[in-house]
Amino acid sequence: MSKKLTGHPGARLLFDIFLIIVALVFFFNSLDLDFRPWLFPGSFSIILLIMLVIQLLMDWRQARQSSRSEGAFPAEAGKETPGEEKKVAVEGQYARLGVAVLSILGFYLIFRFVTIYLAIPVLCLLLVRFLGGRSWRTTGLMALGMDAFVYVFFQWLLQTSL
Amino acid sequence: MLVDILSIFDAIQAMDYLIIALGIVIGYIVGFLPGLGASQAMALLIPLTYGMEPLRAILLLMAVAGAAPCGGSVASILINTPGESTNVATCWDGYPLARQGKAGLALGAASTASLGGALVGLFVLMVLLPLGRMLVLSFSYPELFTIALGGLVCIILIEEDQLWKGFISLALGMVMVSIGYDPVTGSIRHTFGTMYLWEGIKLVPALVGIFAISEGLKLVIGDKGQAVVKDQSVSKARYSDVFQGVMAVFKHRWLFFQSSVLGAVIGVAPGVGGSVGNLLSYGVATQTCKDNPHFGKGDIRGVIASESANNSKGGDLVPTVIFGIPGSVTCALLLGALLLHGIQPGPRLILEKPLIIYGLIVAIFFSSIAASTITILAAPYLSSIPDIPDNLLGISVIILGVLGGYATELDFNDAIVAIVFGLLGYFITEFHFSKVAVVMALVLGKIMQVNYFLTMDTMGPKGFFTRPIPLIIIALSVFLVMKAAYQAKYPPEEKPSGLPGSMA
Q1: CA–CA separation, B189 vs A32, rounded Å?
Q2: What's the structural domain count of chain B?
Q3: Which A-chain residues 11-40 have CB contacts (< 8 A) with chain B?
Q4: How does DSSP classify residue B377?
Q5: Fewest CB atoms within 10 A around its CB: which of B34, B293, B324, B493?
Q6: d(C-alpha B29, C-alpha B67), whole Å
Q7: Option in B164, B396, B398 nearest A1 (CB)
Q8: Minimal Cα–Cα distance from B285 to chain A, Å?
Q9: Which domain holds residue B268?
Q10: What is d(CA B317, CA B334) in angstroms, rounded to the nearest whole number?
Q11: In this structure, what is the dihedral angle of CA atoms B182, B188, B194, B195, given to the nearest 10 degrees?
């Protein structure tokens, strides 16, 4: 079984819980089926559920151990260690991920209800200018370049309705 | 066999050659881009091939797949950033060589070894294809079920230290593949009242999301593992150095032969492909070559070993073409493309659509030659290509990914699937689950379901245990899983070797 600590412990636990909810939804949904169509989703959702609960317990134990080991060295708390730098970077990473995902959802909504040619500049503004910290010039060039590429490649060459 | 393959030239037209050339250019450029490779390029291109003739689409995709590893090796050598996992081992000796002012030597050797490896892989495929025809005719439901099962087991065993999470990923994929109508009974399962899900999760948007959009997200939010750090001390390559690199492959011909055969043989195992081939071949080279302490510090033999093995697409294509079981991620995408064009992958593909298979071979042949030639000719210029900012690269991938998901069937729900799978792919990678296992379950799950029920209906449970091939595969799968589980619990003592501990 995996002993490797990856990602932020809290985020790892949340992801485990999310997958458990998914497995539970699939399991309860499969109870409405007759035995034969049940067999594939039903049996695999039970297996998935059991494995995920074990994974959650392992991750929870590892998270507790890591929080205890942090508490065991209070004198080090004020110092900037490489480990602490990494933790801050990871937390920043999730905040940036949140911004990126919201931006992509905004991009999708504008694409769906307005037009792709507005959605691209808005996404560039959010991800290139604000998240990436690049200049207005780079942001503008990126937005114009992508708009032009999408028009030429998708709408003109492939005759895709956008 | 060769005559059969040559018959493809009667079927392809001038436009097809242009398509192959376009695929080579796209594959080479995408292969060079950090974090991106053949799988992402194919994932983005598959929806765009929707309106093409099936053969033309396959030529384009395979040209991309054939050229991308060569582009990836250039990025590995010059900026220490593998285009994708198939080029990881190339970094270990290629980049130190570049730092020593021998970028030309490394590029010459890498391109020649990559081309040679591709040709050896195609030779293996051509040798096994006629045997495959005989094999497939004798195959029935239990064999197909157990081969798919064995393929999934191989995939999980790739990352031995993450065996448990590999199983979780597999189960997650199997649960997801059960969305939609039951292929045998026709019952509707897990659609949550949405008609869109009646056909199940569509493979193309899911692949675009899990490979391309998740990588785009990583690049956009600035994951440090993907950062491009170009060292200004990398010297410009000269043609004389490149020629020395080409000759180095001939000088170390036995190492080249050993590595390329190893790459092709590993590729035959379903779901393994070049990503494992280059690592294993490098490991074997460190153990079999004399003066192995030089490995990891700029030994040209390390570059040759890695590059000879990672482009053996022919090996990967053996299970893909003969059994319809993907030999690698790019082959899984190829199967997705075939399904998109209404071609059912599987044992009968070779009998019903031989031109498609010959097209694969020809496209890889041309693209490997062209990509290696480009590297050799452009080596002095390639070494001064500026790095592309991660942020800009990532946003381009996300936009093209969402559009690619939508453009398949002009359905906005497909774009949502691509975004959701992109996010899922990001977290799967972040928490060291297995993206490949999820994808392989999505590809192989339906084959397993259908053949499981057909076996139970026609032969009963004994069908799995009274026929030799299913019995051998089941026994081997159980043995391999038990062995991996034992090794995970009681890891063998580490032996000192010349393998470098990290890429940097």
Answers
A1: 9
A2: 1
A3: 11-12, 15, 19, 22-23, 26, 29-30, 33-34, 36-37, 40
A4: H
A5: B493
A6: 9
A7: B164
A8: 28
A9: 2-489
A10: 10
A11: 70
Question: CA B71, CA B26: separation in Å to the nearest integer?
Answer: 10
3-state secondary structure of B181: strand
Which residues of chain A from 90 to 149 reach within 8 Å of chain B, CB to CB? 93, 96-97, 100-101, 104-105, 107-108, 111-112, 116, 120, 123-124, 127-128, 131-132, 134, 138, 142, 146
pLDDT-derived band at A74 (thresholds 50, 70, 90) equals very low
Answer yes or no: are the C-beta atoms of B81 and B275 closer than 8 Å: no
Is the pLDDT at A46 greater than 80? The verdict is yes
Q: Is residue B288 situated within a structural domain?
A: yes
Chain B neighbors of A111, CB-CB under 8 A: 402, 406, 415
Give the mutation candidate from B169, B224, B396, B431 for the A interface (greatest A CB count, under 10 A).
B431
CA angle A62, B486, B167 (to 5 degrees): 60
pLDDT the model gives residue A54:
93
Alpha-carbon distance B215 to B400, whole Å?
Answer: 12
Its ipTM equals 0.84
Residue B501 lies in a domain: no
Cβ within 8 Å, pair A134-B389: yes
Q: Which residue from B119, B109, B379, B373 is spatially nearest to B251, judged by alpha carbons?
A: B109
Q: Which residue of chain B comes nearest to A28, CA vs CA?
A: B190
| The dihedral formed by the CA atoms of A30, A33, A35 and A40, expressed in degrees to the nearest 10 | -40
CA distances from A35 to A30, B133, B183, B187, B464 (A): 9, 37, 15, 11, 21
In whole angstroms, give the CA distance from residue B299 to residue A149: 42
Q: Is residue B351 part of a domain?
A: yes
Tokens at B411, concatenated: 């359905």
CB contact under 8 A, B220 and A36: no
- pLDDT tens digits along B324-360: 777 677 888 888 888 888 887 777 777 778 888 888 8
| Contact residues, chain B, for A107 at CB < 8 Å | 398-399, 402
Element (H, E) at B103: helix B103-137
The pLDDT tens digits for A51-62 are 999 999 998 988
Confidence of residue B259 (pLDDT cuts 50, 70, 90): confident
Encoding tokens for residue B469?
A: 């091939």
A chain contacts of residue B161, beta-carbon cutoff 8 Å: 2-4
Q: Is residue B495 part of a domain?
A: no
Name the percent of chain A lying above pLDDT 90: 39
Does the global pTM surpass 0.95? Answer: no
Mean pLDDT of chain B: 79
